[in-house]
Design a protein that fits this description.
12 strands; alpha/beta; two-stranded antiparallel sheet
Length: about 325
């Protein structure tokens, strides 16, 4: 039988499939099903500082709305404090206790001191690692990219200095040069890089003329940019490479490993194909490895990375030019009148 074990952030994983952060993981029963299906690790749904701050504000407004109406009413209500991150931390502890596979906590904060504060609290729950979810939406015209990048690097350094467990960073590809920024994260001590984060995008309902926020899963085609960067990063950074977005089948996992990723995160395929689909993905990987006579993942990981292929133009602009030169091939797929 093929050996699917890998090392990820110093953790021994039984295979390269990690369940990424999603709404299903907050249910203990789902966590157990994921482990039973063969998931090697699970990323628990992110704690968002903005949500805690908003809930704190809403609670304060509700509790103090009428307290100064008259003297008698000032002592009617007890001084209740919002739980803040405590409820999340309690659920994180219960999740860790529910499974035997590694549990990774996802964190998305705002200020450097709260990134560190929450990271310390998360570490106390006993989780195996922390994934920093760097989610920066460009909304300010006067904020340059370097400012954002430097701030995120400093946050990573601060968190790494504050905790002893491994720390990964989950990034988008919207940096001006993702390779350089990932290299900076690597230099700053990231134990792994998760590429790439898939942002939720809003839509517009033309009937009601309002903004709507649909929940949409990724598509298979979304994994191509991830695959490209896995191939570019392999052998060039110390941090582990975890491929994310558009990974639905065992064949998608194999592609990422061939490109140079150490492992993958899946979420959309679980929504679309149910939790048990992880088992099928693993079976398909094992069958492919047996057919190719690979004993372990290390036998083929990175085989098609930029570092290991002979075609020096495969990951360069020449590839794009070559596609354009063959642009008539599209008519074979989509005949026109």
């Amino acid at each position: 039988m093929a050996n699917l074990t890998i090392q990820y952030m110093g953790l021994q994983l039984k295979n390269p499939i990690i369940v990424g952060a999603n709404n299903l993981v907050v249910d203990i029963n789902n966590l157990k099903k994921m482990e039973a299906a063969g998931a090697a690790a699970i990323v628990y749904k992110s704690i968002f500082e903005e949500q805690i701050q908003l809930e704190n504000l809403e609670m304060h407004q509700t509790m103090t709305e009428f307290e100064e109406r008259n003297a008698e009413m000032t002592s009617l209500f007890p001084d209740i404090t919002h739980a803040g991150p405590e409820e999340f931390l309690m659920n994180l502890r219960l999740a860790k206790q529910a499974v035997t596979i590694p549990l990774i906590a996802s964190l998305n904060a705002v200020y450097e001191d709260t990134w560190v504060e929450y990271a310390k609290k998360i570490e106390e729950t006993g989780v195996d690692a922390i994934e920093l979810n760097f989610y920066a939406v460009p909304v300010k015209f006067d904020l340059c990219g370097k400012t954002i990048e430097d701030a995120q690097v400093e946050i990573l350094k601060a968190v790494k200095a504050a905790v002893k467990i491994p720390v990964s960073v989950k990034l988008s590809y919207f940096y001006s040069n993702p390779l350089r920024f990932i290299a900076k994260m690597d230099e700053a001590g990231a134990d792994a890089v998760v590429a790439f984060n898939r942002f939720f995008q809003h839509d517009i309902d033309i009937n009601t003329e309002t903004q709507v926020f649909p929940y949409t899963v990724s598509n298979v085609e979304d994994n191509r940019i991830t695959m490209r960067f896995a191939g570019l990063l392999h052998g060039n950074i110390k941090a582990n490479i975890c491929a994310n977005t558009g990974i639905f089948e065992g064949s998608d996992v194999i592609k990422m490993l061939l490109a140079g990723a150490d492992c993958v995160q899946v979420a959309s395929t679980i929504y679309k194909n149910q939790i048990g689909h992880v088992a099928k993905m693993l079976t398909d990987i094992e069958a492919w490895m047996a057919e190719k006579k690979y004993d372990s993942i290390s036998d083929f990981k990175g085989k098609l990375s930029k570092k290991n292929i002979k075609d020096k133009f495969a990951y360069k602009r020449a590839q794009y030019i070559d596609i354009l030169m063959k642009s008539d091939d599209i008519f074979k797929l989509y005949p026109t009148i």
